[in-house]
Specification:
The protein has 197 residues and is mostly helical. Helix content is 68%, strand content 0%.
């Protein structure tokens, strides 16, 4: 019997992973959309929690789609070059990364806001975030000392870029987990979370 590419074990596993992750991401986006809609209908202002969640939607939804598409393309081999494979349209996902706010800039904003809060309160919402904030603080301090106290704050921040993006990832993970969209029970309709009512 002839078997399709979908019968290849690693592809089948990737499909299952993609279906689970995209379903989870879609549910989170729908939750944020519903919450924002209610706030706007009431002529209210989105809370910081909701604004953060919306940023996470943009960052993770696009990055997840790009990652899964790239991995699928690698797995199907030369078939990815054929017109019928439809990978020719995958560059659209790259456009999504920059439309309505660059994902990298949003990631930087998430990290900067949490870091600023850490400096004021000497605490963060998760151990991972606190650890990364402390690492960034020490790197900036060293950057300052190495230059005799004369330094550009933006350059100092940019020198910590690895930990800055790691902090953004930690924030995204925490927001999803708080809203039961990561590590939660599959199929659960209970998505109360940190900002949903």
């Amino acid at each position: 019997t002839n078997k399709t590419l979908s019968h290849v074990p690693q592809l089948k596993a990737l499909y299952e992973e993609a279906e689970r992750r995209l379903k989870e991401m879609s549910a989170f986006v729908a939750l944020c959309k519903d919450r924002l809609s209610r706030v706007l209908k009431a002529r209210g202002t989105p809370t910081v929690e909701l604004q953060t969640a919306i940023a996470v939607c943009k960052i993770r939804a696009v990055e997840t789609a790009i990652e899964l598409t790239f991995r699928l393309k690698q797995e199907v081999g030369s078939y990815a070059l054929m017109d019928e494979a439809s990978f020719k349209n995958s560059d659209f996902l790259q456009c999504c990364k920059f439309a309505e706010g660059d994902s990298r800039i949003l990631s930087q904003k998430l990290a900067r806001d949490v870091f600023s809060g850490f400096l004021k309160q000497n605490s963060a919402r998760s151990i991972r975030e606190a650890s990364l904030c402390e690492s960034i603080r020490r790197q900036i301090q060293k950057y300052k000392e190495d230059r005799g106290g004369k330094y550009n704050k933006i350059d100092a921040w940019d020198s910590c870029w690895k930990d800055v993006y790691a902090l953004s990832d930690a924030i995204c993970d925490r927001v999803l987990k708080e809203n039961q969209f990561q590590g939660g029970e599959e199929g659960s309709n209970s998505h109360g979370g940190a900002f949903a009512k």
